[in-house]
Specification:
The protein has 489 residues and is α/β, with parallel strands linked by helices. The protein is built from 16 helices and 13 strands. It has an 8-stranded parallel β-barrel, surrounded by 5 helices. Strands 6-8-9 form a 3-stranded mixed sheet. It has a two-stranded antiparallel sheet with strand order 12-13. β10, α15 and β11 form a beta-alpha-beta unit. Bound molecules: 4-nitrophenyl beta-D-glucopyranoside. The site of 4-nitrophenyl beta-D-glucopyranoside has 14 residues, from loops.
């Protein structure tokens, strides 16, 4: 049964970190200000507006490039412990390369970090949340193996300039979304659409880029700066449709393709790509006439270099489904990662539907996904670096409130079982540019008025609920805000 048992009065540990997340392209704006160069999202939105639901762009977005003080004020209103945001490579290194550091870009992030720290909020910095400098894309982007060095050089600049104050770094936000959506299909920039090929080339380069950056941090910065460097993937709660062995295997394959492809090389005992997926792609490739597998293996040396290169596991979690090979409808696109595993998914009608077509509220799904991670990699420290719900405009967001309360109950279930969950970041602090959906889907605890040149931010009802949860470290399902007037406690 999918019923959720609500256990009142459980408490989050005092040192549990509550935060909110954002990403540079989705909030900053200032796309051509302060010496920033064009990135792949500037390029896509400016050359192919029709690709975006409302033909919008992140040119101004929430204008956080100018309004970051208001953003930090909202963090104080919510009472969050930590703020996760990303840096724009093209703002720090406009050439893509580290020959020239743009001091204006560095100054922007310094101001933001110092403002956050002034109020004892812990910054967590993602180095790459999808906004690659366009020139690097023109040289192949994540399909060019040289990018591991380009990224490592960028990472060194970030650690060097900000690591005295930033103690949590994440190299990449979501390998599969970078590689599958950007290079294998058309759902994210640069929309390369090299089906069955692009994701696997990118996945290998990404792992090497991550490992290089991690080694730089670990060898040259951690000894004096004392922070942590991790990696974030997106994982759904993939539950076998039945208790048959076949469905268990199907769920394993989905986990391997969705996140194991990116995290097994880093977190597994032996390193390297997930075995079953690796063998399936090799077999399919051969049958399709490719002289070599579409998924190129690491050398033994590379495997050893990548293994163990993370201090924590970041997971973005939104939704899930029931999986089985019996639910597979043969893909018309061959080769493709979906065709490689031949597994299908379904959600139940009774699960509430968000404003995003892909987003359903699956019961207990945080617990399920954390269990899956623990089963795979043991007691690695885990941060939920994103979790959230989409609505349309409006301050009354009961759907989001129900989603957050259920998610946090599920997180408590995991904590009760001793899962090493350290923190939880709500996506998102405020409405922002939701990629292909533009501004048509809203994920914010604060609503942003994108018609207003001031980009006024207004707390939604859920902001008051999240604030109360953070303050009391408990989930009171009856709690109602007395008014919608927000204050700093
Ligand atoms: C996240 N899924 O990606 C991104 O990191 C954010 O930038 C984005 O705004 C947010 O989702 C909301 O879309 C996702 O598998 C990755 O369901 C995977 C999934 C959902 C969102």
């Amino acid at each position: 049964t999918w019923g959720v048992a609500v256990k009142q009065n459980r408490k989050f540990p005092d040192d549990f970190i509550f935060g909110t997340s954002t990403a540079s392209y989705q909030i900053e704006g200032g796309w051509n200000e302060g010496g920033k160069s064009e990135n792949i999202w500037d390029y896509l939105t400016h050359t192919n507006a029709a690709a975006i639901e409302d033909q919008s762009s992140g040119d101004i977005a929430c204008d956080s490039y100018h309004k970051y003080e208001r953003d930090v004020e909202m963090m104080r209103e919510l009472g969050i412990d930590s703020y996760r945001f990303s840096m724009a490579w093209s703002r720090i290194l406009p050439n893509g390369f580290a020959d020239y550091v743009n001091e204006e870009g560095v100054a922007y992030y310094n101001k933001l970090i110092d403002e956050i720290l002034k109020y004892n909020i812990e910054p967590m910095v993602t180095l790459y949340h999808w906004d690659l400098p366009q020139k690097l894309q023109e040289m192949g982007g994540w399909l060019n193996p040289l990018i591991a060095d380009w990224f490592a050089d960028y990472a060194r600049v970030v650690f060097d300039r900000f690591g005295d104050r930033v103690k949590y770094f994440i190299t990449f936000n979501e390998g599969a979304q970078i590689c599958y959506e950007g290079y294998d299909s058309v759902t994210k920039a640069p929309r390369l659409n090299m089906s069955g090929i692009g994701e696997y080339i990118c996945a290998k380069n990404l792992a090497l880029a991550h490992a290089k950056a991690y080694h730089i941090y670990n060898d040259d910065f951690k000894p004096t700066q004392g922070g942590l460097c991790g990696y974030t993937i997106a994982a759904g709660s993939n539950v076998p449709l039945t208790n048959s062995e076949e469905d268990a295997y199907a769920a394993e394959l989905v986990n391997q393709l969705q996140w194991g492809l990116y995290t097994d090389p880093i977190f597994s005992k032996d390193g390297g790509f997930p075995k079953e997926l690796f063998e399936l792609v090799a077999k399919k490739s051969a049958a399709q006439g490719y002289p070599r597998s579409r998924l190129t293996d690491f050398t033994e040396e590379e495997k050893a270099y990548i293994r163990g290169t993370s201090d924590f596991f970041g997971v973005n979690h939104y939704t899930g489904g029931l999986v089985s090979a019996s639910l597979y409808t043969p893909s018309s696109v061959v080769p493709s990662p979906k065709d490689d595993i031949e597994v299908g998914q379904m959600a139940l009608d009774e699960w509430p539907q968000g404003a995003s077509f892909w987003l359903k509220q699956m019961p207990n799904s945080i617990y399920i996904v954390l269990k899956n991670i623990q089963k795979r990699y043991g007691d690695v420290p885990i941060y939920i670096t994103e979790n959230g719900w989409s609505t349309h405009e409006g301050i009354e967001d009961e759907g989001r409130i129900a989603y957050y309360r259920a998610a946090l109950e599920s997180a408590l279930d995991a904590l009760d079982e001793g899962i090493n969950l350290k923190g939880y970041y709500a996506w998102s602090l405020m409405d922002n540019f939701e990629w292909m959906a533009g501004y048509t889907e809203r994920f914010g605890l604060y609503e942003v008025n994108f018609e207003d040149p001031e980009r006024t931010r207004t707390p939604r009802k859920s902001a008051f609920i999240y604030k109360q949860i953070i303050k009391t470290r408990t989930i009171d399902h009856e709690y109602e805000p007395e008014s919608y007037v927000m204050t700093i406690d």
